[in-house]
Design a protein that fits this description.
Elements lengths: L9 H20 L4 H19 L10 H9 L3 H5 L8 H8 L6 H5 L2 H13 L7 H4 L6 H42 L3 E2 L16 E8 L2 E8 L5 E9 L2 H23 L4 E9 L3 H9 L3 E4 L4 H9 L2
Helix pairs in contact: 1-11, 2-9, 5-7, 10-11
GO molecular function, one term: type II site-specific deoxyribonuclease activity
GO biological process, one term: DNA restriction-modification system
Protein name: Restriction endonuclease
Length: 305
């Protein structure tokens, strides 16, 4: 008979969630030069854009200058002139152009002008009041616009970085731990039957398990597949999306697709999670482990010998 993964009590879940939340707070408050780096990079882009387009003086916004701005990699800064900033996809659709690639726009002045016409219609009047007044900015207005624009772009970049780094770091930590147990990573393959995928003492990352992608798939000692989702949450509200609306949904799908005797859906968690949501996910067939205590994951894996 195969060993079932552990089911944690409310008290155990509360204790682990408290530890994870404390670690999350500590990491966010740790000294980092990431914000300074993002701010200065963003500031440099806007300063270059202002220089290229004559402080956004309409007379300086020629097709040639716009093409040069895109060629210099300032397309993102141009999008952030809008209030609120406009995404690549939205800009391409609204401007009705096939591509925003600098090389394409450089060869197509009509598309380039259509793109900037969209931006100019939604340009932020609070950061750039001189544009509507059809005048040049004074030094104070220019500095305020550069500061606000750089902060806006830097904030978005660091938020994206935190989301991506959190998940990537979590996956790396899990994979390194598995290697420490003697498992070897193999290339990902589509797994549509239980015999496919990683074999004895192997795991793969970003594998399609059925029709749902798993962050890590491990072949347990008893031949079952353990699908591990790596979830990092920055709030109790966010944890519902990460855990209950994603990982637990996958767990139910995998159990239905492969059978409870063949697959062990699980999640390795870090960050902020509400105990009630943890209990609900566990009841739906998702086994829970924590990145601050991977030894419990190792204990379960060892128990499947």
């Amino acid at each position: 008979m195969t060993n079932a993964p552990p089911q944690w009590t409310e008290e155990e879940l509360a204790e682990d969630s408290s530890i994870a939340a404390a670690q999350f707070r500590s990491e966010r408050l740790a000294v980092s030069d990431s914000w300074d780096n993002h701010y200065h990079q963003a500031r440099g882009k806007f300063e270059l854009l202002f220089d290229k387009l004559g402080n956004l003086d309409p007379s300086a916004i020629t097709d040639a200058n716009l093409a040069d701005a895109y060629h210099l990699g300032l397309g993102e800064a141009l999008r952030y002139l809008a209030g609120p900033p406009i995404s690549d996809d939205d800009l391409r659709v609204i401007a009705d152009v096939d591509s925003l690639a600098p090389g394409v726009l450089r060869k197509d002045p009509d598309a380039l002008r259509k793109v900037f016409d969209v931006i100019s219609r939604v340009i932020d009047p609070h950061r750039f009041p001189w544009i509507k007044a059809n005048r040049t900015p004074n030094d104070q207005e220019r500095e305020a616009a550069l500061l606000a624009s750089a902060v806006l772009l830097a904030a978005q970049r660091i938020a994206t970085e935190r989301r991506n780094e959190g998940k990537d770091n979590q996956e790396t930590k899990v994979k390194d731990y598995l290697r420490g147990l003697g498992f070897v990573e193999v290339p990902p393959v589509a797994i549509n039957t239980i015999v496919k995928g990683p074999q004895a003492m192997q795991f793969c990352a970003e594998c399609l398990l059925g029709e749902r992608k798993a962050d890590v798939v491990v072949r347990l000692h008893d031949t079952r597949l353990m699908a591990i989702e790596c979830k990092v949450s920055n709030s109790a509200t966010n944890s519902v999306k990460r855990l209950n609306n994603d990982a637990a949904v996958k767990a139910e799908y995998w159990i239905k697709q492969f059978g409870i005797a063949q697959v062990v859906p699980s999640a390795v968690l870090a960050g902020v999670f509400k105990v009630l949501n943890l209990e609900q996910a566990q009841e739906r067939g998702l086994s829970l482990f924590w990145s601050h205590d991977l030894e419990k994951l190792g204990t379960f894996i060892d128990s499947t010998r």
